[in-house]
Amino acid sequence: MRELSVLQVQSAVKSLFTEICFRYPDDVKKQLEESMKKETGRAQSVLSLLLENEQCAKENRIPLCQDTGLAVVFIKIGQEVHFTDGLLEEAIHQGVREAYQQAYLRYSCVNDPLFERINTNDNTPAMIHYEIVGGNQVEIQVMAKGFGSENTSGVRMLKPAQGVNGVKEFVLDVVRQAGPNACPPMTVGVGIGGTMDVAAWLAKKALIRTNKQQDPRYATLEKELREELNTLNIGPAGLGGKTTALDVHVEYAPTHIAGLPCAVNINCHANRKGSVIL
Amino acid sequence: MKRLQLPLSKEVIRSLKAGEQYYLCGVVYTARDAAHKRLQELYDAKKPLPITVEGQTIYYVGPSQTAPGKIYGSAGPTTSTRMDAYMDMMCDLKMQACIGKGKRSEHVKELFREKEVIYFVTIGGLGALLQNCVRQVEEVAFEDLGAEKISRLTIEDFPVFVGYDVYGGDIYDSGK
Q1: Average of per-residue pLDDT across B98-103
Q2: Which of A8, A82, B31, B141 has a CA 20 to 30 Å removed from the CA of B84?
Q3: Could you report the predicted ipTM of this complex, rounded to two decimals?
């Protein structure tokens, strides 16, 4: 058994959110720079403004975007870890609270979705996903998830007979509908399989993924989807161009003999994410 | 660099074409979902509004917090279509222009054409750069709404595209 103080988790969560709201992740920055080379005219000037925005955010310590998101936390806990010094969940919320207060991020969370909609004034609660894995480490992955893009996401329960084409049509449909609202060029997370909720969870995990797709069939699907999405002429800021999707990530899981659940979760060009292993 | 001074004259409004890029200077009022909802409630109850909408430009933004030593927080546009439900009221109050991102409903597009309201779009995610264009901030109303309160901003060289012009031109259709 390894003892780990929840205060370490709290401090890790705080530093991650403080960091990711002020810079593009390395992979995103590289993709934006590469896209610049392929574009001309208005699309190229929009991309150039986005890169300039990051420079400005870093130099002046101003968040990249005013929508600093709901705080999404994925935490993989090695089952040999024993947490001490309090409740893990409260520590995660406290890390979020301190980051949003001390880095002057926006409080974008309301207490009740339908009736009062009163701001919680510290951006908690975080949206937490727990996974128990082997070993004695804890991996924390976070996203500052803006809702311009989140609002354009969707789930469809496809029929098995619809297969690859059904998945492709649905992804294209969601992205077409999203258009400029999702702040393109976007990262598209696709979750296939499981139950409805598992597909949605996979789609969000897909957004945060940094490694390459291991399965060659899904890698091909990702490549084909990216190419097809980039013919839609939505382009940077939705003002036209060849760069609609910076990347497409697909995650998958076993499912029912009667089903082909498919979820699409969209993130804006910044795809603010970060991770740490404790 | 082509600058536009706010408020716009009728002549200038009629000269603008969807897809053109400009730099705005002058005064805008911030308002998004919650502020529009409150304005609508006051309007429906025939009570006085805390701002005069006539001839003004509304910017759909909810900034991040203002850090010490700064004038304003990160301040990029939010998705405009969420404000579509309030546009009959805003046009009745003679709003001159609004700034946001994304397409509007067909109803709003037609309404803007008929009432000669300009819809400017700017780039989502450009929060840090756009706050650099804010010169002065005055709090106006609905302080309790936090990021969603109404403020009066004086902006300088704020980059926008003409989204919808008064002839039905649409940057998202024709500008590509």
Answers
A1: 96
A2: B141
A3: 0.91
- Interface test mutation site (partner A, options B65, B83, B137, B171, max chain A beta carbons within 10 A): B65
Q: Residue B131: its chain A contacts at CB < 8 A?
A: 62
The Cα–Cα gap between B7 and A26 comes to 42
Q: Does A62 touch chain B (CB under 8 A)?
A: yes
CB atoms A52 and B129 under 8 Å: yes
Which amino acid belongs to residue A221? L
The closest alpha carbon to A105, from A237, A278, A272, belongs to: A272
A46 reaches B (C-beta below 8 A): yes
CA distances from A145 to A1, A229, B129 (A): 34, 22, 20
Residue pointed to by tokens 């899904």: A218
Output phi, psi for B20, to 5 deg.
Answer: -70, 145
Q: What is the pLDDT of residue B176?
A: 47
**Which pTM was predicted?**
0.93
The H-or-E segment that residue B39 falls in is: helix B33-44
pLDDT digits (tens, 9 = 90+) for A234-244: 999 999 999 99
